[in-house]
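Why do we care about 3D structure at all? Because function follows from shape, and shape follows, mostly, from sequence. That is the central idea of this module. The next example makes it concrete: a single protein chain, its amino acid sequence, and then its structure expressed as tokens.
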Amino acid sequence: MTRGIYFLVVFCFLVIGVVSACDSGQVDINSASLGELDKIIWVGPATAQKIVDARPFDSVEELIEVSGIGDVKVAAIVNQDLACVKEDSEEMTEEEAEETKQEEERFEELVVNYELTPPEPVVGDVIVLTPKGIKTEKESFNKEKLAKTGLMTVSLILLGLFAFQFKKKWNQKKLKEL
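And the structure:
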């Protein structure tokens, strides 16, 4: 089982390509701020800081070296196609470095303020929900219907097998009579 997952991850890397070049809208993991890194799937504030501490990276796949990011998460990050590595990311201008530092400070300030300030309670009109008004994500999926359908399918298969067995015995009986 583990080998299958390993080969799947390797196959994904080969299909997608080992080196990721940055397009517009993508996040360069070597120069992005903590806030920008937080946009990447499976990356929260703590993981974003670990990525910053482990820089520089030659490819997105090297994120596997970051504590807390394994094969499955790297595959998901690559499939999301948001993270990238610029070829010249090590040569960041002073202006880019200052902008990145300011964004990191703003992000950390937001995180600290969010953790220390509890959310205010929402006060407003009461919403009355009825079973008819609540919709689920997958309305078509119903466990009861699935169970009934499965039971009916198994019953029909058994009935068919019994009918086949009965017909077989009936035919053998007729052959003996002849």
